[in-house]
Design a protein that fits this description.
Length: about 375
């Protein structure tokens, strides 16, 4: 049996009848950038997320960058971010000229350790960037409280690139922070046919600044009051995403069923994902902690099973951030996670038989130990 980490062909086959006429109509229109399809997707995602505004942009990374720019983050500022996340979370902070301040994570749930974040606050702290990793939200009530306490003006940029549809205490990304950023990269739960992203927020002025910035800060044609970028979303991606959004909850239900089955079979074999009380994960990834992780990964590969390591190197130890002076030992929980984590296949189209096969292969690996 072969079980890849991700295979989107099954999803496409199930959507072909809906997708092809919509994509063909767009080709006939020859209107490729922004326009009505993007506006429709923005309305649909705002409604889905319980947010007043949604601004379609070119990627999750650009959603984060555009948000920071709209909040006025720049040279001399600091932004607090977990060290255990995708590179883009911190890359955008540095690109505004601000300093990423790396903080450790909690062992359970892999998200920001808010007590450590509180210790990292300084006079220069301008924003907090909690990341909702693997489909599970960070402790947002504690993050919001910290933002209020340190008079950040409530500047909390949620990196929700892996967590569209997730909930904590019944509230999702964009309902906690100043804004939340989504990614539609093909490996995400809601995925485009390429790159795309979205900024969710409740504040009209902020949404307006983001719209302005995604068009190079243009006021009227060729007149600019701000320096923005080309952060536009293609109409093509919006057409695809609007159709996929209707199926998202069904796909998430299947991911949860797969996760429950893994949890059941793997109990006592490896450390299965801890979902914190109050959280509803959307399982963008199903990440175990495994002793002998690299050997296990090779064993599974020999059995035809694809897996992935999110993430092998914490950001405070990345070469490009050496100028910040991070050292091994600074964030021990994240550093340990980097040695132990392994993501198993969990995409919706997998069958129960395939999930059982993966789980049984894991049991087999540890039985010989
Ligand atoms: C995917 C991802 C991003 C970046 O999104 P892109 O669309 O690939 O630019 C940022 N942060 C996290 C946590 C992600 O998983």
């Amino acid at each position: 049996m072969k079980v890849p980490m991700l295979d989107l062909r099954g999803q496409y086959a199930s959507l072909r009848a809906e997708m092809e006429p919509a994509v063909l109509a767009l080709m006939e229109s020859q209107q490729f950038v922004l326009g009505e399809p993007v506006a429709r997707l923005e309305r649909a995602l705002a409604a889905y997320s319980g947010c007043r505004f949604a601004v379609g942009v070119s990627s999750g990374t650009d959603a984060l960058l555009c948000s920071l720019m709209a909040l006025g983050v720049g040279y001399g500022d600091e932004v607090i971010v977990p060290t255990f996340t995708f590179f883009g979370s911190a890359g955008v902070i540095a690109r505004t000229g601000a300093k990423p301040v790396f903080v450790d994570i909690e062992p359970a749930g892999f998200n920001l350790d808010v007590e450590q974040a509180a210790r990292a606050v300084s006079r220069r702290t301008k924003a907090l960037m909690p990341v909702h990793l693997f489909g599970q939200m960070a402790r947002m009530e504690a993050v919001s409280e910290l933002a209020r306490e340190v008079r950040l003006g409530g500047a909390v940029v949620e990196d929700a690139c892996q967590s569209v549809g997730a909930r904590r205490g019944g509230k999702g990304p964009g309902q906690w922070g100043t804004c939340a950023c989504l990614s539609f990269y093909p490996s995400k739960n809601l995925s485009a046919f390429g790159d795309g992203g979205m900024i969710l927020c409740q504040d009209e002025a902020l949404a307006q600044r983001c719209r302005h910035l995604r068009m190079h800060g243009e006021d009227t044609r060729y007149h600019h009051s701000m320096i923005g970028g080309n952060f536009r979303l293609d109409a093509w991606q919006a057409v695809v995403l609007e159709i996929k959004l209707r199926h998202l909850d069904g796909w998430v239900a299947r991911r949860r069923a797969h996760a429950a089955l893994y949890d059941q079979i793997l109990e006592g074999v490896v450390q299965t994902p801890a979902i914190l009380p109050g959280n509803e994960s959307v399982y963008n990834q199903y990440v175990i902690r495994a002793a002998g992780r690299d050997e296990l990964q090779r064993f599974l590969a020999d059995k035809g099973i694809g897996t992935a390591i999110y993430y092998p190197v914490p950001l405070h130890l990345q070469k490009c951030f050496a100028y910040l002076g991070g050292r091994a030992g600074d964030c021990p929980v994240a550093e340990q996670a980097c040695r132990e984590v392994l993501a198993l296949p969990v995409y919706p189209e997998l069958t129960e038989e395939e999930i059982r096969y993966v789980a049984e292969c894991l049991r087999e690996f540890y039985q010989g130990k």
